Amino acid sequence: HLSQRLALVANKVAQDAILADIGSDHAYLPAYLVLNNKIKSAIAGEVVKGPFNSAKHLVEELELNDKISVRFGDGLDVLKADDAVTCITICGMGGALIRDILDRGIKNNKFSGKEQLILQPNIGEKGLRTYLNKNGYTIISEAILEENKKFYEIIVAEKRPSNQELNEEELLFGPFLLRESHPVFIKKWQQELKQRHYVLNQLEQSSQNQTDKIDQYKRDILLIEEVLT
Ligand code: SAM
């Protein structure tokens, strides 16, 4: 049942974790991890009734009720202090939504500071890395894959005593992905480069004043060209 994308996320989860999977949809990820004896237990959070019911059904069908608690609520609101969660996965959403969920979690004291975050934004990776960097999280590993003609990045982050400072390049490409330069990474950024050239061209032809946007696109294009050569 598990997509390659979620399999790669599953691979990043530490053995014997207590997991919170936020936006769990069908609860495929926690079910897979429990069935493979990788985690002790899990909470599957959902804020939409349809997916929430799908998660409940799957957990009942697999008789995993004692291991997976399916909860209805917004983001990390579903967590209680005594859940003692060690790992939080938030996957398959935009980076801005993931950031909002984390931000609300910080405001509502949902973090012990010891949990590992495994995030898989569909878009907006740079914004998410910037947010993590500003809020005292260190990115400790990353992964990239292509599935059904889409590129996915996975970001693993933790609180560490010393602060990680990421530069513009690392924020855009990911500190680990940048160094690894995986063939999928190269392919993604070749496509991104083409897209950015196209958009830049459109912006330059536009009659509105788009100077800031144009500058940002030019900066990104330079960074991408550097990385690809
Ligand atoms: N995590 C699964 C995956 O990666 O395959 C499901 C991804 S699905 C595209 C996104 C899910 O997040 C949807 O089921 C949606 O209802 C849920 N979601 C969106 N915002 C949420 C929030 N604030 N709190 C909890 N769940 C949310």
Low-pLDDT stretches are none
Beta-strand content estimate: 15-25%
Structural class: alpha/beta
Task: Count up the domains.
Answer: 2
Tell me, what is the CATH class of the largest domain? Alpha Beta
Number of helices: 9
Largest sheet: 7 strands, mixed
How is this structure best described in words?
The chain is of the alpha/beta class. The protein folds into two domains: 4-166, Rossmann fold (3-Layer(aba) Sandwich), CATH 3.40.50.150; 185-228, no CATH class. It contains nine helices and seven strands. It has helices spanning 4-12, 28-35, 49-61, 95-107, 125-134, 168-173, 175-180, 183-205, 211-228; strands at residues 17-22, 39-46, 68-72, 87-93, 116-121, 137-147, 150-159. It has a seven-stranded mixed β-sheet with strand order 3-2-1-4-5-7-6, sandwiched between helices. α2 (28-35) links the parallel β1 (17-22) and β2 (39-46). It is elongated and about 60 Å long. The model has no long low-confidence stretch (mean pLDDT 97). It binds S-adenosylmethionine. The site of S-adenosylmethionine (SAM) has 17 residues, from β2, β4 and α4.
Key terms:
9 helices; alpha/beta; elongated; single chain; 229 residues; seven-stranded mixed beta sheet; 7 strands; binds S-adenosylmethionine; Rossmann fold
Topology readout:
Layout: H1 4-12, E1 17-22, H2 28-35, E2 39-46, H3 49-61, E3 68-72, E4 87-93, H4 95-107, E5 116-121, H5 125-134, E6 137-147, E7 150-159, H6 168-173, H7 175-180, H8 183-205, H9 211-228
Parallel strand pairs: 1-2, 1-4, 2-3, 4-5
Antiparallel strand pairs: 5-7, 6-7
Helix pairs in contact: 1-2, 4-5, 8-9
